[in-house]
Sequence to fold (246 residues):
Amino acid sequence: MTDDLFRTDAYLRECEARILRIDESGIVLDRTVFYPLGGGQAGDSGVLALADGRMLAIADTRKAKDAEGKPTDEILHVPAPDQADLLAALKAGDAVTARLDWERRHKLMRFHTSTHLLCHLVPWPVNGCSITPEYARLDFHMTDPLDKDALTAGLARLVGAAHPLVVGAITDAELDANPALVKSMSVQPPRGTGTVRTIRIGSDEQIDFQPCGGTHVANTAEIGSVVVTKIEKKSASSRRVVLGWA
Fold:
């Protein structure tokens, strides 16, 4: 099992850890600050600093899967290519420092929070999502046209209002009683522990409240300048909104 420290503190940039196992898929640590690909958000990259000072580059982070292809409670740190000598020197039990590419991660946090603001501006179910450091997109299950300039102005207003973001949790029973909290048609919140992690934006005025396992900024003001770069009609019942940096 990997202790996923980013769930409780998205601002942790590094942590001390020990290697649990290494295989052809990647490196599993006992704890990590690296977010694995999921919920539309890209996996983190960075380095594992070894005890002798050498650095192993990590190109991606994924959830480990069992023999049936189902995600487990382990997180795989996928090494960048051409590091065979470094990998050969590692073994289970070795101490490392897991260190994020923070600039990249912070962009992901800012964009992910922006998509929650977009869900407030476009109150329709989401049937697709992708969050990268360079752009983010949401596909809305809807037929009405959308206005790019109006959405950009709405995002600027919500960012400028400096709404706080709070990570919380609700019980599985509470979620079952309020199924409309799940706005994604394609991704369901992870269950199994009895509680589901939630994101709430806004205090005096609730801007967004939904289950989410991703990483976010603590206040919408931290997002900075984000704009709608494109709106596409993907099908008769789907509209894609793409966000970029201003």
Q: What stands out?
A: The longest strand covers residues 55-65. The mean pLDDT is 94. The first helix runs from residue 84 to 88. The two ends are 40 Å apart (CA to CA).
